[in-house]
Design a protein that fits this description.
Layout (H helix, E strand, L loop, with lengths): L2 H26 L4 H17 L4 H5 L21 H17 L2 H21 L2 H13 L5 H10 L5 H17 L3 H11 L9 H17 L2 H15 L5 H16 L3 H18 L10 H9 L8 H13 L3 H14 L6 H14 L3 H14 L4 H17 L3 H19 L5 H18 L3 H15 L16 H10 L7 H4 L4 H14 L3 H16 L9 H5 L3 H17 L3 H14 L6 H15 L3 H14 L6 H14 L3 H14 L6 H27 L2
Helix pairs in contact: 1-2, 1-5, 1-7, 2-4, 6-7, 6-8, 7-8, 8-9, 8-10, 9-10, 10-11, 10-12, 11-12, 12-13, 13-14, 15-16, 16-17, 17-18, 17-19, 18-19, 19-20, 19-21, 20-21, 21-22, 22-23, 25-26, 25-28, 26-28, 28-29, 29-30, 30-31, 31-32, 32-33, 33-34
């Protein structure tokens, strides 16, 4: 069904049926001219003003006023003289017989039947909706059809319909309603693995971004890009573009730059003509060029300082924060800058200096929210750098008493509530008090981690980044393997902290924890951190786990070379660790999907088969090897590998895809390649 036909359907079906009934009423009226004028002449004027097609069917195009368009839903009208003439003609027909009425009713029935028949082709309706959406046109005319498809038996059809119904709501600023319908249908059977799963994830990220929940949007986008990077879909480019824009809005220029470069590389690899796919790559390139600006105001200086701090250029960032305090003493950024000066000191390893600075700041700012931030930072210093759990709890409890003792309603305090409750949950987790940890994490979730989506069964909101952690703890799972936690030392504490921060998507904090484990292993402490290496004393397994954690962080940050380096280090340090074969699979995915290195990817997968023949990843490696041969055009080898996979793993989760998708796709690809080769050879 064409998009134009869909646009007419909403108002024309009803109008056509009414018209047929009008003619029948006029016949029954037995040639009463006044009734004919009321029931026939007036509706004709109404119908033509709606821009419908009745005037073309019954009146002829000469009845349209010259110069006005018709047949496209635009206004057309008929002169009163023409209407009177039409009235006389219609009365004549009615006086002769019922034939005109019956023919009109038959015509109406055929038209509606045709429209209803089109409704039975969901793919056409979804294609039309996609055309409207990509061209930026209003989706309202097709919403009623799409809402009918929401009751379809096929979850993929429902997912496609939900996508565009949600976009129609989104266009009217009904963001909550759009998110509700997107998330309700994102969990249908097979949806996540389908093309609709990619588009729905992007839509949910756009909705969260519009709501101002940038962190939630990034969680969705990072999950989408990391899990689906091997697939070809234009929305992958749009997802990376959105991630870049969010990072840029929050002064994380390096991450924004990496996201946009990934989008450009992905588009170059998969689309010969991105513009034909509706992708505006020129806009992404312009955004890359416009990232850096020269600071000239307090806002700009603060933004530049935040960027330098994000890059861990502690000295440069501290100077910029101090510039704000000295040159813009009345700026709203002064309290945040004074707090951040302590962060820069701690980042540079000047721990005692940072502690003194924060204590002084607390005394001078007795009630402001940044005082609470300084208390939390003192707790972080005690926990993360000095590994003193009791001292950390003292500072966190101080912040809690201040917050809950009357400052809770003060402007700005709500921003640090998440950090406060999350830290208290961390302490409970470290002390093996699982119930208390869950309770604190739940309070943190309500403060700073709005729900991302709802399950399809309507059982309630689940799965923010924090909720993933809560759910895992409730299920009795541990984020950190027992082999890492086995030795009760500082290395175990830092790995535990890094895993919690990583799960809640606080990547900067997680990075610091893992790096401290690795730095302690190198025995190169700085300044007053000299005594820390002995306290951390990481085991070989803990060092390997820290490299694994850093590899994952670099991967979701689009730093693929660094991710590969840390994955390789983790495998080399602990080749018999239970996660070593899984890291080889990850290395293969990164090599092929993100670095365009198919031979490297094959080498990693084959290494799994060779070195870990009894491991959990043998089946996955075998499947990926077959797929890689297929994608690289080695069709005979791919078919042999596919069939060998089905013979060895007939009940595998991948087997269904091989039987019903890959083999059929392989046949089409081989035929297309043969056809292209024949065309190149010529007659």
């Amino acid at each position: 069904m064409s998009s134009r036909r869909l646009r007419k359907f909403n108002h024309h079906e009803l109008i056509i049926w009414i018209y047929g009934a009008i003619i029948h009423v006029a016949f029954v009226a037995c040639m009463d001219r006044s009734m004919v004028e009321m029931y026939v002449n007036q509706p004709f004027r109404c119908i033509t003003q709606r821009g419908g097609t009745i005037e073309a069917l019954c009146l002829g195009r000469d009845a349209l006023r010259p110069g006005l368009p018709d047949m496209n839903g635009q206004i057309a009208s008929i002169s009163s003289r023409k209407c009177a003439q039409i009235s006389r003609i219609m009365v004549g027909y009615l006086q002769i017989s019922r034939v005109a009425a019956m023919l009109s009713l038959i015509l109406c029935g055929c038209t509606v039947t045709d429209l209803r028949a089109a409704d039975r082709s969901p793919s056409r309706a979804l294609e039309a909706a996609e055309q409207l959406h990509r061209s930026g046109e209003n989706l309202d005319p097709v919403v009623s059809h799409l809402q009918q498809l929401l009751r379809h038996d096929d979850p993929l059809v429902k997912a496609g319909a939900a996508l565009y119904v949600g976009h129609a709501l989104f266009a009217r600023d009904r963001i909550d309603d759009a998110l509700e319908i997107w998330t309700r249908h994102a969990h249908g059977e097979g949806v996540r693995e389908s093309r609709w799963g990619i588009s729905l994830s992007l839509a949910m990220a756009q909705g969260r971004h519009r709501q101002g929940n940038a962190q939630d949007a990034l969680v969705i986008l990072d999950d989408l890009i990391s899990v689906r990077a091997a697939e070809v879909h234009t929305d992958m480019v749009r997802a990376a573009d959105l991630a870049g824009r969010i990072h840029a809005e929050h002064n994380q220029s390096e991450r924004a730059r990496r996201a946009w470069r990934w989008a450009i590389a992905y588009a170059r690899r998969h689309f010969s003509d991105p513009a034909a796919e509706g992708l505006d790559m020129a806009a992404i390139r312009r955004a890359l060029r416009d990232l850096d600006t020269t600071p000239s105001t307090a806002d700009a200086v603060f933004s530049q300082a935040e960027r330098q701090r994000g890059r861990e250029r502690w000295t440069a960032a501290q100077k910029l924060y101090e510039q704000i305090v000295e040159e813009y003493p009345h700026s709203q950024h002064v309290p945040a800058s004074r707090w951040a000066i302590g962060v820069c000191m701690m980042g540079a390893g000047r721990l005692q200096e940072a502690a003194t600075h924060w204590r002084s700041f607390i005394d001078e700012d007795p009630s402001g929210p940044w005082r609470g931030s300084a208390m939390i930072s003192l707790g972080d210093l005690a926990l993360e750098h000095r590994l003193r759990i009791r001292e950390a709890k003292h500072f966190y409890r101080q912040a809690q008493d201040l917050f809950e003792g009357g400052a809770e309603g003060a402007p700005g305090w709500d921003r640090i509530a998440y950090a406060l409750y999350q830290r208290l949950g961390l302490l409970a987790y470290l002390e093996a008090d699982r119930d208390a940890a869950i309770a604190w994490f739940e309070r943190a979730s309500r403060r700073g981690a709005p729900q991302l989506h709802e399950p399809g069964d309507g059982s309630g909101p689940v799965e923010s980044a924090m909720d993933l952690l809560i759910g895992s703890l409730r299920d009795g799972n541990d984020l950190t393997p027992e082999v890492v936690r086995r030795t009760s030392n500082g290395g175990a504490i830092l790995c535990l902290l890094g895993d919690v921060y990583g799960t809640t998507h606080e990547l900067d904090q997680a990075t610091r924890m893992y790096r401290r484990v690795i730095a302690a292993a190198k025995e190169q402490p700085e300044d007053d951190a000299v005594s820390e290496s002995a306290a951390v004393a990481p085991t070989t397994t803990q060092i390997a786990w820290a490299h694994r954690g850093l590899g994952n962080i670099h991967y979701v940050s689009f730093e693929f070379n660094q991710a590969q380096e840390h994955y390789a280090a983790a495998i080399a340090i602990a080749p018999r660790a239970p996660w070593a074969d899984d890291l080889l699979i990850r290395r293969g995915v990164v090599a092929y999907s993100c670095q365009s290195q198919p031979e490297e990817a094959l080498a990693h997968y084959r290494r799994v088969l060779r070195e870990y023949p009894r491991g959990d990843q043998v089946e996955t490696a075998t499947y990926f090897i077959a797929v890689l041969h297929h994608w690289e055009g080695h069709f005979d080898a791919a078919e042999r590998l596919y069939r060998d996979f089905l013979r060895r793993y007939p009940r595998s989760t991948y087997a269904e895809s091989v039987r019903h998708y890959h083999l059929a796709e392989l046949k089409r690809d081989r035929a297309q390649a043969d056809k292209q080769q024949a065309a190149e050879l010529g007659p």
